[in-house]
Design a protein that fits this description.
Number of domains of chain A: 1
Number of domains of chain B: 3
Distance between the termini of chain A: 18 Å
CATH class of chain A: Alpha Beta
Shape of chain B: elongated
CATH topology of chain A: Amidase signature (AS) enzymes
Shape of chain A: globular
Strand content of chain A: 5-15%
CATH architecture of chain A: Alpha-Beta Complex
Number of helices of chain A: 18
Helix content of chain A: 40-55%
Largest interface: A-B, 44 and 30 residues
Number of helices of chain B: 15
Number of strands of chain B: 17
Oligomer: heterodimer
Distance between the termini of chain B: 74 Å
Structural class of chain A: alpha/beta
Largest sheet of chain A: 11 strands, mixed
Radius of gyration of chain B: 30 Å
Largest sheet of chain B: 10 strands, mixed
Order of helices and strands of chain A: HHHEHEHEHEHEEHHEHEHHHHHEHHEEH
Structural class of chain B: alpha+beta
């Protein structure tokens, strides 16, 4: 029974639960068994609360038996990146700084999951404070790519991507600041959706870069990603940047929204640095859409392609330097035993609590904001950001969505780029501008390299048009079976 | 050489709001430590600020009271610095775009005597902005404790122009500002509770010089009289330093009000780089005309405008106005009683003297007392129409205050109507003349004042119930 459940899409699991052919406890036990079997090698989880989750599963079964099931996700486990708060559970951000921190409150997305009966299960590994593209920056050790355990799963939501790809969980939430959902989804061969900035509440998401962070969904199929998005999306009065938008039925929209669409292909996203195998797979996907009658237009996004990385590392690090100031060893978190006074507590606790990449970005961001440099760096970066946003909105006036590779290369070897931060930063070159523009983006599987590593196709949509974006992505998925291929573990 | 001082004040005023500036937790003072907290106040991972509209309403109202220009957009910045009383290690504040720009505070300087109005001046403001208050540190021998109850309380920073030149002006500024804020419901401004805090920037220069001297910042002036004393002390100190060929150092000093002395805290070389930048967690807020108009409708009459109105329209003496005007509830009471009675001066006298005295003796506020404007108006009418004398009226007032009965009912109940019975009066007058032969003789020789002794005896015999005018007529008649 258990093996049959592994890799079943959440929509299918929901149907089995609704038909009484599966219980939530059985499903959770299958996930636990799979996790216990493979996670010693994959290392997607920082921790999980087996007893608590089983109690929730039992409650879900009792609700369903009483005819009081809350919704389609009632009784289905959803993994959470260890940056999203769940009351009574660890919230480590994969940092030594918060190794022993337990959140006393729920994030808004956690509350929404609980309200629909979904079971928040497990704390998934990540790059420390979501800073990184390989999950190697975790204080608790890297997660491995289920397709090749010697390779990275991508990051920063590498634990979420790997857990879904390895069949440990049907669904997971990640967070995406510069590609942290889409890039690991691509590298692990699953679907990863970063919604429009403001669609999903950030309340309870430990902030990295406030103006870029967005929680999104990771799943086996576009339909699953849509279902989960429907649960977590919507205005939240506790997040001032949350948008007062209507939340449509994304899943129902998949069946009703039909092409042909006008699709843009940004020529700069196919230049030097792109792995030829990936370029070829993405071009095949574009060809598929053309054959479906879509109008394919070459478009140009020069600033997005050339300036996005620089702009991102000014804005994101500036915000991070301020956001992470709260981790000071005074009220909670790591406090150095050697500290002698208040200033010493700060200096030593932060020196001991943060890893090298987090320190690098705090120092960079502190410099960016410092007196005399603010105008040259931060202010100028904000102006270029506006231009990048305008560039996208001009192009999207005539296109329903844009198509590009998600990542310039497939999963790389553990340790391969660790010594070269810039090479690591460049793995986000196609995803980062989407965060700067605040647009929705999704990565879906579109093939494999010769050595069997997954390739991701990125689709970029209009602001708050997740329904349209998901429909375009679903049309490709329906005609292909990349998403039905799974790693052997 | 003669020197003049140049003084600018920075005043922090806690806004009186039900909840904190960026979360729903209540504000409060004297609660058990760290009970007024939540994930936002404690800056837990993932917590986000959401603006409390009441705080913005209050600072806009404060700005309108002080005749500031209100910015069309309210924007938030982060001021980054590490200190254990600051949970996020940044403070949400307004850096380059304060919500209130300009404005002024009208002050009154001490007059030549208590009964004479002093000189009035307008002291210009630079800006007013909104920020969050920090927590409170308590330092022990081996450790420090921090209480975050105060953290996140909305705090308004009012910055004056360097437009004052004496400690008296600074004192008058703070007094007027505090009254305006209390009256507007902006803050209770209790300095003992830290609801109003004042720092002063002080420099001196030779009289006639236009360039500013080196300024010294005087911190933590924690009562209004310490503000006056501290500034006066600092001006004397600077003049003494310059007088002995010394140089004023730009520094921050702390004034010890008990000791009447100040000491240097830190010099400006240690200035922070606060790395201000717009807070990405908060959207700028548009302040439109409709919103402004709604707040403008709640702005009370300014204190000195009211005083001028009382002086001109009601013809009240200056001393009465200075008793009434600082107390809005007393003013509202007065205006209602004056309207009912048509005798504003008499009404004002009763309120400023007898009512104030009884209230403070009973230790109750006006709202809790049984006296309403109708009581005062009724009492005044009885005196004005000669039904009771002023001295009886004093007793009636005390009765009225205690029982809440109207004056007319008390006069009826106690039988206090002035006697106009001429038979009875004839007898009192005859007795009084007989008992005061010297006075009677004196009056007959033309000494008007001698009459008072006889009239006094009449009032005494009648136990205050004789109508004084009638008594006067009868005495003259019997002696004539």
């Amino acid at each position: 029974m258990a093996d049959d459940l592994i890799y079943q899409p959440a929509a299918r699991l929901a149907a089995l639960l609704a038909a009484g052919k599966l219980s939530s406890v059985e499903l959770l036990q299958a996930c636990l068994a799979r996790t216990k079997a493979v996670d010693g090698r994959v290392k997607a989880f920082n921790s999980y609360d087996e007893v608590g989750a089983l109690a929730l599963a039992k409650a879900a079964d009792e609700r369903r038996a009483a005819g009081q099931a809350k919704g389609p996700l009632d009784g289905i486990p959803v993994g959470l990146k260890d940056v999203i708060a769940v009351e009574g559970q660890p919230l480590t951000c994969s940092s030594r700084m918060l190794a022993n921190f337990v959140s006393p409150y729920d994030a808004t997305v956690t509350q929404k999951l609980k309200a629909t009966g979904a079971i928040p299960f497990g704390r998934l590994n990540m790059d420390e404070f979501a800073m990184g593209s390989s999950t190697e920056n975790s204080a608790f050790g890297p997660t491995a790519n289920p397709w090749d355990l010697t390779r990275v799963p991508g990051g920063s939501s590498g634990g979420s991507a790997a857990a879904v790809a390895a069949g440990e969980l049907p669904l997971a939430l990640g967070s995406d600041t510069g590609g942290s959902i889409r890039q690991p989804a691509a590298l692990c061969g699953i679907v990863g959706l970063k919604p429009t900035y403001g669609l999903v509440s950030r309340y309870g998401l430990a902030a990295y870069a406030s103006s870029l962070d967005q929680i999104g969904t990771m799943a086996h199929t576009v339909e699953d990603a849509a279902m989960l998005l429907g649960v977590i999306a919507g205005h939240d009065p506790r997040d001032s940047t949350s948008f007062k938008a209507e939340v449509p039925d994304y899943r129902a929209g998949l069946a009703t929204k039909k092409g042909p669409w006008r699709l843009g292909v940004p020529k700069e996203f196919f230049g030097a640095g792109l792995d030829p195998e990936i370029g070829a797979a993405v071009k095949q996907a574009i060809e598929f859409y053309r054959q479906q009658g879509c109008e394919i237009k070459e478009v140009s996004l020069p600033l997005a392609a050339e300036q996005a990385i620089a702009v991102y590392y000014l804005i994101a690090t500036a915000e991070a330097s301020s956001n992470l100031a709260r981790y000071d060893g005074i009220r909670y978190g790591h406090r150095s035993a050697a500290a002698k006074d208040a200033i010493d507590i700060y200096a030593r606790s932060r020196a001991e609590g943060f890893g090298p990449e987090v320190k690098r970005r705090i120092i960079l961001g502190t410099h960016v904001l410092s007196s005399g440099y603010y105008d040259a760096y931060y202010l100028r970066a904000q102006k270029v950001r506006t231009l990048i946003r305008n560039e996208f909105s001009t192009v999207l006036r005539d296109c329903d969505a844009l198509l590009s590779p998600t990542s310039p290369g497939p999963a790389f070897k553990l340790g391969e780029k660790s010594a070269d931060p810039l090479a690591m930063y460049l793995t986000d070159i196609y995803t980062i501008s989407v965060n700067l523009a605040g647009l929705p983006g999704i990565s879906i599987p579109c093939g494999f390299t010769g050595s069997g590593l997954p390739i991701g196709l990125q689709l970029i949509g209009r602001s708050f048009d997740e329904a349209g974006l998901l429909a375009v992505a679903s049309a490709y998925e329906q005609a292909h079976d990349w998403h039905r291929k799974h790693p052997v573990l | 050489m003669n020197y003049e001082a140049v003084i600018g004040l920075e005043v922090h005023v806690q806004l009186k709001t039900a909840s904190k500036m960026f979360t729903r937790v209540a504000t409060g003072y004297g609660e058990p430590e760290n009970t007024l907290t939540d994930p936002v106040v404690l800056a837990l991972p993932g917590a986000l600020p959401v603006l409390n509209k009441e705080a913005l309403d209050k600072i806009i109202k404060a700005g309108l009271i002080l005749e500031c220009t209100i910015a069309p957009v309210c924007k938030w910045d982060r001021k980054n610095y590490f200190y254990p009383d600051s949970p996020k290690n940044y403070q949400i504040t307004q850096y380059d775009q304060p919500i209130c720009i300009g404005g002024s505070v009208e002050i009154e300087l001490p007059g030549p005597s208590r009964n004479v109005m002093g000189e009035h001046k307008q002291i210009s403001l630079t800006r007013i902005h909104l920020e969050e208050d920090v927590g409170k540190l308590t330092h022990g021998a081996n450790d420090s404790l921090v209480d975050y109850n105060r953290a996140g309380t909305p705090l308004m920073e009012i910055v004056s122009e360097p437009a004052m030149s004496t400690a008296d002006e600074a004192f008058a500024f703070l007094t007027a500002l505090r009254l305006a804020m209390v009256q507007g419901g902006i803050s209770d401004c209790d300095m003992a509770k830290g609801q109003l805090r004042c720092d002063a920037n002080i420099s001196i220069r030779p009289v006639g010089e236009t360039k500013l001297g080196t300024k010294v910042e005087l911190k933590n002036l924690n009562s209004i009289s310490f503000v006056r004393d501290g500034i006066a002390h600092e001006i004397r100190r600077q003049i003494a330093v310059v007088g002995s060929d010394g140089t004023i150092v730009q520094e921050t000093r702390q004034y010890d009000g008990e000791a009447g002395a100040s000491a240097a805290l830190r010099s400006k070389e240690m200035a922070h780089d606060y790395r201000y930048f717009p807070d990405p967690d908060l959207m700028p807020v548009k302040v439109d005309e409709t919103w402004l108009a709604a707040i403008r409708a709640t702005v009370p009459e300014r204190l000195f405008d009211r005083q001028r109105r009382y002086l001109e329209k009601f013809q009240l003496p200056y001393t009465l106005t200075s008793v009434l005007v600082p107390h809005p509830e007393l003013c509202a009471f007065f205006e209602e009683a004056a309207l009912l009675s048509g005798k504003p001066q008499a009404v004002a006298n009763w309120i400023a003297n007898d009512l104030q005295r009884e209230l403070s003796a009973a230790g109750v506020g006006l709202a809790a007392s049984k006296i309403r404007p109708l009581h005062i108006a009724g009492l005044v009418a009885l005196v004005e129409s000669g039904v009771i004398s002023s001295s009886i009226a004093k007793d009636v007032f005390v009765d009225m205050f205690a029982t809440g009965d109207l004056a007319e009912a008390i006069v009826e109940r106690q039988g206090l109507k002035q006697s106009t019975d001429t038979g009875e009066m004839e007898q009192w007058v005859a007795d009084a003349i007989a008992a005061n032969p010297q006075a009677a003789a004196g009056f007959k020789k033309g000494n008007e004042k001698a009459l008072n002794a006889i009239k006094g005896a009449v009032m005494k015999a009648s136990q205050g119930m004789a109508n004084p005018q009638l008594a006067d007529q009868m005495v003259r008649k019997q002696l004539g």
